[in-house]
């Protein structure tokens, strides 16, 4: 392992909790170089909703590479991009009656967010943005300024300005009416709140601790934005592509945000890809006003297209995700009752699930026990106090049972 | 072509100059769906130094995918990353006696720049950065703030602060001694210049107009930074990986910058990948203080590793790049003399070459003529006045001859 | 009146509500050039707590000028400054067991605030400051950034950053526990709130609508700041110098803020003067690090000193202020009851009193009626909905009766 | 002296060089409390152009106070303000054919600058401002951001942004054509310079080291601003009111800036007062959009008006100032020649004069010697290397001779 320690920056993090060298992966399993299999309930932090090296996507990918399909194409027109656009239109936008234009903002989620913020500010002529407590939107300067985590913010090295955090749903456990503070500040011309260009929000906060906003809260936020002429940016980078059941995390709330950010699982196979969806009337950019080298990675378009075809031609995946999510919820409910003194809290929606412990040490200890038992999970939340489950949506019922059993054992080992 | 026009944002740009749909590509050629071949002197804006779908890299890539090597791995330890680190150490760092630690900052060049700026500010406790006239460093908020182009800056929607531009080499055609203004401001405690954390510079400015800094200017900048205790960030995203001849654009200047940004061709095959190289003493990050979903794309590690093995085990590519560059320079010299009234200016180093026209309309017209003759080139410079050549380093002498002939014809058609 | 309209900028405001030319003034009365007397319940927006041209101060002032006492002295040592310092120490600081060093920050309240903010940031190394809804701290860029009024903020022409507004006391009419939101954000490392250097607060918000914080709220704020190691800046520019009864508006809350801003009535006679009081351990400035031309206006020191001697050698003024304040409160209570449908709200403490109307038009109409009856009052609050009383503390009981009678008549004329 | 040391902040500076307690002052003399007379070649840092306690102004002032003229009047209409406006129009604006509207921005020069910057940004919708090396414009956040001195900038505690320094006249001793760098950056759309709302400049830099811009440089700057549609703000706070001869420092350059800042000697007697003069077409403010408590200090209007009547009804003061300035210049020329090894440099215009030494220690030592001989002078320049003369414009020829003799002796004592 010495070349990693010798050459790689101390900023590396996942390798600290899982100190093995991984080599191969298939479906819900990832294998270390000595052949040990790990059940992966982490799934690339949400980038592998269709599992590792999904065979449908793999076939399409290898075929494309074998036939010398163009690999790198910036924002040129390509057959691969056309296939993706047509399929995205047919499988995703049209059935949901969503009217968006598509920006290819760069390879990752932070690019999708940066493009969204730039456009919202350009359109409105305002600089200020409202974000939410415990939000995570990325590490580039614009995205970081709307991210909550203080350690990550501290890395900026410049004051992060232009964003004001508002309480996410349930931040006060119901002690305050939804949006009371936010709307009062907006309506009071003496409040000192800079008039916002946009609100940026996650349907479910992943890094923030698997905080699932109630659908009516999302609807209420959408209404508030409309009342006050504020653009709503929905960051679905981690929670989109079916993670919570429907393709978009906001579908069941009955809203259509002005701007939607997608990345992580949109490429399907784990290759970098991102989209910023924008209402047509917001498409005021000059050609090239936002650009980037890795906006047109055709292999990712190919796997993205295949994933849409295989998994989003019907509602089976959505139903399965919700059903499996309920199984986890049920197990978590049992655990909450089994350990009344531990004050566990079950959180989440669909296959984004969390179990909150009293502190980060406990949650970390459970993940460590699980790792030793062959299960990968990470913690999230401001103090790492939430055990976070993001398994592939394609995992089998047996794999889910296996994982939940390991979780129960691991918790038992820690809480005794 | 309607799905593009219907669904893709107006921000798209390359597709406007090259209104065909590309499908396949091999080496220096890219093919439209109707089978027309184009000689590619654009090469993914520098991301395809080894040509399209390079057969050595393709083989390694397909093998890796076929054997279910892990695809997406964040910053976990993987066999693919270990191979890359060992090979980068052996082929690149060790022979050049360069002592860097490696940050995997995210998938693209902007990520490499954002990480560099964050780290420089964190280490020094200062916010201000010096950039150069006509610099290009990326479109995310931190990278954009050190980029020169006013149209792109205008897209930010917030005032871009913390950066002060200084004149790049030859900005005044020698009318001012190098760094006279910069150093005077630094030495004068009343100058009003915020004390800078870092200087960020490109060895050759690509987007800015193929402005090749003299090596002694780069050396002088490095000396100045050392005298004033300022970190030097060398953005080699476009000009690294052999574009100017040696692996790094700064090698022949005899300097070793504090921080180096690499992306574009580092992955070899056009897949998103980026590195931020940092002097070991700068490695002060907390684990996870900078992160991102697409830091560990193993297929890119695989092709990156193979590219290093194939092309950087000896100095043949470097010699060939310099030789081909000289051929272009020679042709350009002829053109300058052939059209004395056009005031053409030949620019560049290695296989980053530019021919400056009196204005952007002329340069654009030449590129349009070339496209019609089957050659892809883009313009660069603040007004698009520079015809820019970034062919694959692997192009053959015949392809070079063919391309130069088309260029001569295209110029003749425009200048008459 | 034409020279005003011809030459003075449209930014002028008071002259619009009181379109007469004033000439002389004495005590609680100000006279227009045609000899009409106005009872002044505005008192220089709080700068004339001891009335116009107070005879004690006038004598000291004329004597000083007549004997050629130095007028302008920057921060040189002068006899006038020494007298002021000794008297301030003896009459104000020592009896209250307050341990402050004194900065002479420049001539006005905004200078006192700018110096406070600069020092708080310098001491803590943090940029962020917490301000409150409907705060008013001044019009220079630093002070404006912590001011609430959106019209005034809009005048900055640059985004106002580094400040986050929190709800002032009673902002939600008791619907939220004090500081619940603020403290939750501070304690949650994922909240996205930049760690604040300081909190800046007014004991009673004057411009914001005569919002009088409860003393226990101020105490709670002080406790919170201590718990979280945040500096507390008390802006007593308008509410200090006895306006609410005691010399400082915060005395009865039993707190001693880290930094206190004084101006307006500190000079006594209406001449520009300001102080920033700082805890001795905060006195980390370099000589000259903050300076200004008008820090040492000796005539203001002379009248300031005399005011302290005459009015702050015993507690008579404080008692009288409280008693007169109660008289106003009693009248306001009657008015609230007399006009139940008008939903009037009585506000304030000491001789800072407000009567809130349903909207700014009504409050403005009442002030207009009062002006026509010979009484000067202004409106305040975000929409000008509060009729604001800041009479000289030295007004007689008869003058108070006279003024209250005019107010009753004016309200009757408007509400009918 | 103990009460000063005990109670006054360490930020005090002038009292460190002149450790005596001053009491009275008259004309060019200021007296310590023990009766020692000092000849004052410092004159309130330019606030006492008409000398201490000028008898004409004193009489008008005392008369006004005695007759209970209104003292403090915010921006109400007053007889005192009307007299001032009429006189300023008659004596200053009309004869010079200057068409300005007048903003009363607050009591000091920093307020005049803050108002100027706010207005320029509001009118243009741009944030960026160009300032000059070694500029001094004040200590409030907006003014400080365009000030050069690094120690004073460091006091801000927040990054000072939105300003980019350009070289003031002679910054490179003629090695660069005037404005070459500035104009190149403006004309190059790739330069990275944010498009500026305004340029702010002093006609002669006082704090910066008595740097007198050539009149043709000022004219060139004005031309450049017109060419590029940039507002020109002339900060005449220290150099206006006749300091360089004519009332405005820019008159002889034949320009009329868009915005002019006046303070210091505009009040005449040393009382705080400031003006921002704006071209009528810039008067776009909302009523009250910029305000402040000390905008209408009538005693200052009274002495300001009297000063205009007495000193600006003819051109005697201007001629006398120029003549006395030439006398100083002549003496300085002799000194430069007398001490060839000291490399003294004579600087300035009118009665703003400087003698530059090799370093701040020498200049400081000369000022110390002068103080001991009864002459007050301060140093200026980035390292305090310039001995700065700002005597009252009203000093007699004898006083000038006396002062120059002390200077010669003091220099002799230091340089030997």
TrEMBL record, chains A, B, C, D:
Molecular-function GO term, any one: diaminobutyrate-2-oxoglutarate transaminase activity
Enzyme superclass (EC): transferase
Coiled-coil zones: none
Cofactor: pyridoxal 5'-phosphate
CDD domains in alphabetical order: OAT_like
Pfam families membership: Aminotran_3
Keyword Transferase: yes
Metabolic or biological pathway, per its Swiss-Prot or TrEMBL entry: Amine and polyamine biosynthesis; ectoine biosynthesis; L-ectoine from L-aspartate 4-semialdehyde: step 1/3
Keywords: Aminotransferase, Antibiotic biosynthesis, Pyridoxal phosphate, Transferase
E.C. no: 2.6.1.76
Top-level taxon of the source organism: Bacteria
Keyword Transferase among record annotations: yes
PANTHER family for this protein: DIAMINOBUTYRATE--2-OXOGLUTARATE AMINOTRANSFERASE (PTHR43552), DIAMINOBUTYRATE--2-OXOGLUTARATE TRANSAMINASE (PTHR43552:SF2)
Entry's family note: Belongs to the class-III pyridoxal-phosphate-dependent aminotransferase family.
Record-given protein name: Diaminobutyrate--2-oxoglutarate transaminase
Organism field: Amycolatopsis albidoflavus
Source taxonomy: Bacteria, Bacillati, Actinomycetota, Actinomycetes, Pseudonocardiales
């Amino acid at each position: 392992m010495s070349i990693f320690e010798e050459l790689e920056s101390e900023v590396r993090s996942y390798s600290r909790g899982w100190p093995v060298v991984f080599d191969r992966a298939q479906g819900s399993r990832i294998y270390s170089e000595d052949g040990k299999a790990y059940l992966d309930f982490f799934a690339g932090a949400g980038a592998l909703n269709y599992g590792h090296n999904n065979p449908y996507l793999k076939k399409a990918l290898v075929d494309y590479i074998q036939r010398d399909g163009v690999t790198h194409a910036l924002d040129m027109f390509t057959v691969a991009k056309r296939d993706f656009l047509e399929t995205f239109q047919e499988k995703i936008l049209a059935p949901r009656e969503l009217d968006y234009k598509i920006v290819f903002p760069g390879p990752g989620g932070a690019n999708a967010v940066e493009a969204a913020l730039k456009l919202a500010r350009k359109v409105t002529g305002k600089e200020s943005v409202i974000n939410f407590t415990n939000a995570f939107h990325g590490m580039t300067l614009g995205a970081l300024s709307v991210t909550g985590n203080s350690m990550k913010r501290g890395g900026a090295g410049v004051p992060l300005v232009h964003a004001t955090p508002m309480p996410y749903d349930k931040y006060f456990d119901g002690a305050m009416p939804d949006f009371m503070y936010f709307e009062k500040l907006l309506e009071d011309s003496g409040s000192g709140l800079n008039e916002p260009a946009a609100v940026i929000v996650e349907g479910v906060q992943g890094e923030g601790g698997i905080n699932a906003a109630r659908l009516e809260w999302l609807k209420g936020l959408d209404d508030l934005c409309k009342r006050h002429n504020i653009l709503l940016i929905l960051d679905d980078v981690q929670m989109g592509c079916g993670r919570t059941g429907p393709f978009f995390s906001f579908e069941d709330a009955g809203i259509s945000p002005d701007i939607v950010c997608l990345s992580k699982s949109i490429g399907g196979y784990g290759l970098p890809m991102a989209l910023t969806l924008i209402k047509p009337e917001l498409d005021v950019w000059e050609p090239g006003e936002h650009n980037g080298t890795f906006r047109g990675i055709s292999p990712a378009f190919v796997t993205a297209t295949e994933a849409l075809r295989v998994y989003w031609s019907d509602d089976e995946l959505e139903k399965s995700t919700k059903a499996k999510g309920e199984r986890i919820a049920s197990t978590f409910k049992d655990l909450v009752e089994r350990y009344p003194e531990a004050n566990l809290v079950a959180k989440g929606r669909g296959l984004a699930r969390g179990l909150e412990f009293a502190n980060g040490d406990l949650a970390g200890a459970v993940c460590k026990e699980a790792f030793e038992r062959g299960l990968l999970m990470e913690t999230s939340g401001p103090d790492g106090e939430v055990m976070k489950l993001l398994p592939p949506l394609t995992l089998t019922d047996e794999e889910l049972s296996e994982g939940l059993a390991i979780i129960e054992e691991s918790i038992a080992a820690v809480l005794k």
